[in-house]
Amino acid sequence: MNISQNGIELIKKFEGCRLEAYKCPAGILTIGYGHTGSEVHLGQKITQEQAEKYLKQDITIHSNNVSRLVKAPLNQNQFDALVSFEYNVGYGNFASSTMLKLLNQKKYTEAAAQFGRWVYANKKILQGLVKRRAAEKELFVKPC
Fold first, then answer.
1. Could you tell me the domains of the chain?
2. I need a surface site. Which of 36, 46, 57, 127 has the fewest CB within 10 A?
């Protein structure tokens, strides 16, 4: 399954785009639409075109991660919400999450309730994450 434009816009909205590297609230060097990696360094600047390229590459990786990890059938909205979620929390966190365990048991309602647990960075609730998780959950439970 591939992410829809709706899912891409959700990621863009909550990641925002910064063309100069910065440390996110979790202390991770980030650039563009939430792109991280060993190539990102303080003081680095990129173009909007490079930000879009990173986004496309990152979305492919995170979409593949969701496809590989989730064994239960998903509709497009569920897939889009999960790619946005995994894009933000990372492969390891999603792979070991209660959300994934519930999804793979086809307990969709219980899995959707897990979004609200992922609102912390450095043990502090971040309002941006509260809003993002609410939007991801809303999309996840929305019928196609």
1. 5-141 (1.10.530.40)
2. 127
Could you tell me which of 119, 114, 63 has the C-alpha nearest to residue 91? 63
What pLDDT is recorded for position 131? 98
What does the pLDDT look like over 47-64, one tens digit per residue?
A: 999 999 999 999 999 999
Give the residue numbers annotated as catalytic, written as ranges. 15
pTM as predicted: 0.96
Tokens of 96: 């070991």
- Give the whole-angstrom CA distance, residue 110 versus residue 106: 9
115 in Cβ contact with 85 (< 8 Å) = yes
- Chain segment 65-78, per-residue pLDDT in tens: 999 999 999 999 99
